[in-house]
Write a structure and sequence with these properties.
The complex is a heterodimer of chains A (271) and B (261). By secondary structure, chain A is α/β, with parallel strands linked by helices. Chain A contains 13 helices and 8 strands. With 261 residues, chain B is α/β, with parallel strands linked by helices. The chains are: A alpha/beta (271), B alpha/beta (261). The A-B interface holds A 124, 146, 150-151, 153-154, 156-158, 160-161, 199-200, 202 and B 160-161, 163-166, 179-180, 182-185, 198, 200.
Chain lengths: 271, 261
């Protein structure tokens, strides 16, 4: 049963595209057949982070409007042959996407992939609502700061109201991915800590990605961080998160100032 | 009087409406209204409004002019109160006394003329209407009470968190939230509001002016609390009640917050 996963946040710049690429690659490394889809029409970035920007011919809009076939638009990753990218159009705007068009593309992709990872644009407008529309799993990306957490809260409300799963009376599976977490700053009270964020959002925690230069370095060379530096802290955190998405029980490490103190948090559900 | 052969159904019901009370001088009041409308142009859209002119002592023509001015500003007037019921006519909205409508002669047909000449006393008017509608029985206080029994309104129970951007609106009664109310969310109730979680958003109890409404919550981190139209922002909430289980009520037109434990 293929899974449609939306990576979303409300706020921009929190790491949706980075997380889409990293989770997509990590799922592919776990032998899943994966497609990552860029829904940020007009401001496409996922092709850059995936290192596929020089091979884009057709895009999501072309396929949604029937101007190109799905297989013509999909770009196979050079490093992993079970990882594909469906890029967004840079020259169109989000109004070019229609619900019917997106539904057709997603339905066609269901036949070919185990995971379809949709990279949502920031905001709560058309692009973002269409990216989540047909999803059955959501990864809500948040930074440990108040504006990001409030926007994520808004997005969780929309996931429970505006998606097809929710409208049919079903339950959207939601996970929190806390990115750019700096243990030192959280300890000094300059950032929200993990408990604060979980208390406010009250959805299960999928992973905590520590703030790291490795993430930026990987983006700049056009590689998902999980493929670029497999042993770095963020890379391991993404790989663990991907394993949790696949149903494995992996203990959760909260990045901490104090060396050796690993707090086991897996399975916790904030009230 | 003969009983009509086809039956239509009448029921006495009460609805919450907003009553606008213009004050003198009218020109100045209209100016202030315009200033308000500039801030929130949609305030009156889709709301049923009653105009209460009891404080003005206006002539019929001036009232008609006021109604025209308000209609021109998108205020949807469902009734007039505080005027002489004998004015009832098509160019004015239905006239209400103490919340009940005095029918105009048009709607009542032949018998209606009697009504128009009645004293403004609401009860005798009601008796006459009851007779005209074919009841035949002499109206009494008991019958009036029968016509409009006290309604008990079911509370609205929200069995999840109220997320940022969501708005819960229950004009008729209490709202009970089993979960938290997030920052950027609103809960608006005609009655009291109970939140069995943390309040980080805005809570408005007694939204139609019910000053006995209260707000209860397990943990107070609210952006705004309002009771009966009086409000308090986060800045005004004292530190010693912040983060605590509290209840809030209106006392001498200020919101008073008390710890529950």
């Amino acid at each position: 049963m293929p899974k449609i996963l939306v990576v979303t946040s409300g706020k921009g710049g929190v790491g949706k595209t980075t997380s889409t690429a990293a989770l997509g690659a990590a799922l592919a490394q776990a032998n899943q057949k994966v497609a990552v889809v860029d829904f940020d029409v007009g401001l496409r970035n996922l092709d850059l982070v995936m290192g596929a920007e020089r091979r884009v011919v057709y895009d999501l809009i072309n396929v949604a409007q029937g101007d190109a076939k799905l297989h013509q638009a999909l770009i196979r990753d050079k490093r992993l042959d079970n990882l594909y990218l469906l890029p967004a159009s840079q020259t169109r705007d989000k109004d070019a996407l229609t619900e019917e068009g997106v539904r057709r593309v997603i339905d066609e992709m269901r036949e070919r992939f185990d995971w379809i990872v949709c990279d949502s644009p920031a905001g709560i407008e058309r692009g973002a609502t269409l990216a989540m529309r047909f999803a059955d799993v959501a990864v809500v990306v948040a930074n440990p700061e108040v504006s990001s957490v409030r926007d994520s809260d808004r997005i969780i409300g929309l996931l429970d109201a505006k998606t097809e799963v929710a409208e049919k009376g079903g339950r959207m599976e939601k996970h929190l991915l806390l990115t750019r977490y700096d243990a030192g700053r959280a300890a000094r009270g300059e950032m929200l800590n993990v408990d604060d964020v979980l208390e406010i959002l009250s959805i299960p925690l999928l992973g905590i990605i520590p703030e790291s230069e490795d993430v930026l370095r990987a983006s700049n060379v056009g590689s998902p961080v999980t493929l670029h530096s497999g042993t770095s802290a963020p890379s391991r955190a993404y790989a663990d998160a991907a394993r949790r998405l696949l149903g494995a029980e992996v203990p959760m490490d909260i990045p901490s100032d104090k060396k050796g103190l690993l707090v086991r948090l897996f399975g916790r559900r904030a009230a | 009087m003969t009983q009509p052969s086809t039956h239509i159904r009448f029921r006495g019901r009460s609805f919450p409406v907003l009553a606008l009370e213009p004050d003198a001088p009218i020109a100045g009041w209209i100016e202030r209204l315009d200033a308000c409308l500039e801030h929130s142009p949609a305030f009156f859209s889709r709301k049923a409004i009653v105009i209460d002119v009891s404080k003005l002592g206006l002539e019929r023509d001036s009232v008609a002019e006021l109604v025209e001015q308000l209609s021109g500003r998108g205020v949807r007037i469902m009734g007039l109160t505080g005027v002489d019921p004998s004015w009832a006519c098509d160019d004015l909205p239905p006239i209400l006394t103490n919340g009940r409508s005095i029918a105009s002669s048009e709607t009542l047909g032949e018998g209606g003329e009697q009504v128009a000449t009645l004293t403004p006393n609401e009860r005798s008017a009601f008796e006459e209407i009851a007779q005209t509608l074919g009841g035949g029985a002499q109206g009494s206080q008991e019958q009036i009470a029968d016509a409009e029994p006290e309604r008990s309104v079911a509370p609205l129970v929200v069995e999840s968190a109220v997320r940022s951007g969501q708005s819960i609106f229950h004009p008729d009664g209490d709202v009970i939230v089993i979960g938290s109310v997030s920052s950027g969310a609103d809960v608006i109730a005609g009655g009291s509001v109970h939140v069995y979680g943390t309040v980080r958003g805005r809570i408005m109890a007694g939204a139609y002016g019910e000053s006995r409404a209260r707000i209860f919550c397990r943990r107070l981190e609210a952006e705004l609390l309002a009771v009966g139209g009086f409000y308090m922002t986060a800045d005004e909430i004292r530190d010693d009640v912040r983060g605590r289980a509290v209840h809030a009520r209106l006392e001498d037109e200020t919101i008073k917050i008390t710890k529950l434990d």
